[in-house]
Amino acid sequence: MARKKVTLQYIAKDSARRARFTKRLGSLMKKATELGTMCDVKTCLVVYGEGEAEPQVFPSHAEAVDILNEFKSMPELGHCKKTLDQEAFLTQRIAKLRDQVDKARRECQDSEIRYLLYNIMHGNHPGLVDLSAEELARVGWKVDELLKSLGERMAKNHVQAPPPAPC
């Protein structure tokens, strides 16, 4: 049975907020335990509750201190190797999206050229009269590319073809 989606917003009612906090904290601790068991890693949680003097520490204060000290003793490169600030992350994301846009643009242009070539082959552009110089150049380039590809396939098939059987 699927649960309804919970809206993420501040819970105004104190008793409901404390109950939700306690429930979610238990779930979070369970997840940390499962992650440590399944992946054979050390996990700890430090949660500062609203209005509490000391944080809640999981699994225990001593174990959490040991894990955090081990983390602090790692070389700087070790725990910050893949960390990005917001600007670097956005720059990386923009570059990836630009690559996707360029790829989609090339695929679209290729499809347009193929469609134009298809129409030319079926006589919809007799004499290629109504085509611009740019369209003619792209069609010529595509025809050259297709002929080269066809020649490579023929050469490959010719090399792989078994010798004819003697009569």
Automatic annotation (TrEMBL):
Compartments reported by the entry: Nucleus
Residues in MADS-box domain copies: 1-50
UniProt-listed InterPro entries: MADS-box/MEF2_TF, SRF-like_MADS-box, TF_MADSbox, TF_MADSbox_sf
Keywords from the UniProt entry: Coiled coil, DNA-binding, Nucleus, Transcription, Transcription regulation
Protein's UniProt keywords contain Nucleus: yes
Alphabetical list of Pfam families matching this protein: SRF-TF (PF00319)
Cited PROSITE patterns: MADS_BOX_2 (PS50066)
GO molecular function, one term: protein dimerization activity
Main location: nucleus
Residue ranges that the Swiss-Prot or TrEMBL entry lists as coiled coil: 87-114
Membrane spanning residue stretches: none
GO biological process: positive regulation of transcription by RNA polymerase II
Gene3D superfamilies: Transcription factor, MADS-box
A single GO cellular-component term on record: nucleus
Name of the protein: MADS-box domain-containing protein
Organism: Triticum urartu (Red wild einkorn)
Lineage of the species this protein comes from: Eukaryota, Viridiplantae, Streptophyta, Embryophyta, Tracheophyta
